[in-house]
Amino acid sequence: MTIDVEAVRKDFPILGREVHGQPLVYLDSANTSQKPQVVLDTLTEFYAQHNANVARAVHTLGSEATHAFENARDKVAAFINAPSRDEVVFTKNSSEALNLVAYSISNASTTPGAERFRIGPGDEIVVTEMEHHSNIVPWQLLAQRTGATFRWLPIDDDGRLVDSAIDEVINERTRVVAFVHQSNALGTINPVWRIVARAREVGALTVLDASQSAPHLPLDVQALGVDFVAFTGHKLYGPTGVGVLWGRYDLLAEMPPFLGGGEMIETVDMTGTTFAAPPHRFEAGTPMIAQAVGLGAAIDYVTALGMENVQAHERELVGYALDGLATVDGLRIIGPAVPVDRGATISFTLPRIHPHDVAQLLDEQGIAVRAGHHCARPVCVRYGIPATTRASFGVYTTTDEIDALVRGIQQVREVFGA
Amino acid sequence: MTVPMDSMYQQIILDHYKRPQHHGLPEDFDAEVHHVNPTCGDEVTLRVRLTGDSIADLGWDGEGCSISQASTSVMSELVVGKPVGEAMALQRKFLELMQSQGHAVLTDDDEEALQDAVAFEGVSKYPARVKCALLGWMAMKSAVAEAGWRAQTDELGDTGEVT
Asked: Of A106, A127, A208, A251, which one is least surrounded by beta carbons within 10 A?
């Protein structure tokens, strides 16, 4: 079965609008995806019919809201093949999920029973050179707080991890390896098994940033073999304000809390507090109830399409787009130039035309792309460029839209006389 | 492709981008400044030499988007040889135009004074790009201050920062 893109497009009301008098061509799904009507309806219905706070009200609305919220947790657990629903923690986004792990690790230094998470001088934290800032900065800060050393795996000219560096950079001193599944700036899909195998050899924890993979390919946390996975709802056709941290239960059970507050406790006394079991230990305060319910609806939506079909559709698009972009004189792909182990996110540069000018002129033709360093500045530094233009695709992207992009780029070149 | 009338990319801007004026750093100068716009990664290094109360010479080097580079070129053309007070008045006028969010009402006198800089009017509709257009103007203002020029009290007043 393949995806009926025309039918899918009818589910996304925003795709019917015009920009600067042209039909919208939305090629910025890696930034945030558009939302299907069913997600919008779910949000409205929640607020219109079931709104109440969760886990505390005894009235009917309270139990309906709690049921809807916890039901969303079940949907997430099934979506990523988690062994237990209690391994799914709702956060506000991927950044918060990654910070949760990093801060719990430093909180472990003063928490009895959390010794296995303690890190300090002489220990090393490893990331990759292709990370989003959200998977760099929390670890740099953790290194600062603990005295551990911050290191990274380098990338090669084609936008892949340098395989020969993996065994050297991840070593007996490594305590945490945090890495991206699919790069938001390059499109590269990393060999998770390779890094997990090495990290296990040396006894390091693994943290996978799946922000850019969860919306585009089947995600099976058990098959991946990592210890933690972070992703966000708004790139997965869900609302903003909700993300997910998945963690192995035995680890979550020993981890100290990140934020303190309501609903994350077991009992509170003025002389001390004991904490709830996971996942609630990590969900202080009133959570993003409607947004989690909306994410559940988004998961139902993509599950009905079939994540294998989504992956196949986007694989076709990326091959088509790489071929199309190759016809533009001077265009340089930043990242893998072949449709192997790469997702439907393509960064490129044009000689003598700044990416912001490319994006602005494309916008004048109704085509939405992103320009900049994509919150992955080290990638731009690595390739000696100030920024890139990036086109990224989703379930609703058509080959016609990719044709429009290629035509649009040709027009940009004409405007600049290139 | 012809550029639509309402495009941000007026021909004048493209021409200045391709053939920037006063591009290059003069050997003889009183002050040099380096300004950066983190949004686009635009950079400009600008040198200025004053003679009495006038901008005797100004040259610059930079890289970045067409808006930042063309605007610096247009600014250079407008202020070289002018009394500093007049250059500062133009700077304020241009800043006002950039802050107009597309609602500027320019008088004939304004258009006469701003010349090619009027072409950047469309940029004011895009808050993300306004800093690009202002980069060179802010650099010029800083450089002049660093070169020792002090504004008369009635010429003080806007938001340009002196680095």
From this structure: A251
Task: Report domain extents, chain A.
Answer: 5-30+306-415, 40-303
For the ranges A78-82, A168-172, A311-315, B50-54, which has the lowest average pLDDT? B50-54
CB contact under 8 A, A356 and B7: no
Let me know: does A331 contact A350? Beta carbons within 8 Å: yes
Find how far residue B102's CA is from the centre of its chain: 18
**From A137, A251, A375, A385, active-site residue:** A375
Residue B100 region, left (φ>0) first, then alpha (ψ -120 to 50), else beta? alpha
Distance from CA of B104 to the nearest CA of A (A): 21
What is the model's pLDDT at position A58? 85
Percentage, residues of chain B above pLDDT 70: 88
Give the CATH number of domain A40-303; options: 3.40.640.10, 3.50.50.60, 3.30.300.30, 2.60.40.10. Answer: 3.40.640.10
pLDDT digits (tens, 9 = 90+) for A191-215: 999 999 999 999 999 999 999 999 9
Q: How is domain A5-30+306-415 classified at the CATH fold level?
A: Aspartate Aminotransferase, domain 1 (3.90.1150)
pLDDT for the residue numbered B154: 45
Is A221:A229 a contact under the CB 8 Å cutoff?
A: yes
The enclosing H or E element of A174 equals strand A174-180
pLDDT tens for A76-94 read 999 999 999 999 999 999 9
According to DSSP, the residues that pair with A176 across neighbouring strands are A125, A205
pLDDT top residue among B103 and A207: A207
Per-residue pLDDT at B153: 45
Which residue type occupies B52? G
Using a CB-CB cut-off of 8 Å, the residues of chain A touching B63 are 386
Report the pLDDT averaged over residues B39-53.
Answer: 91
What does pLDDT average to over chain A? 96
Interchain contact, A360 vs B132, CB within 8 Å: no
Helix ranges, A269-349 (H):
289-305, 307-326
The pairing of beta strand A388-392 with beta strand A370-372: antiparallel
For residue A416, give the nearest of B14, B41, B64 by CB distance. Answer: B14
Q: Which two tokens stand for residue A195?
A: 């890094």
319-358 in A: which are within 8 Å (CB) of B? 353-354, 356-357
Q: Kindly report the pTM of this predicted structure.
A: 0.92
Domains in chain B, start-ordered, CATH in brackets?
A: 11-147 (3.90.1010.10)
pLDDT at B163 over 50: no
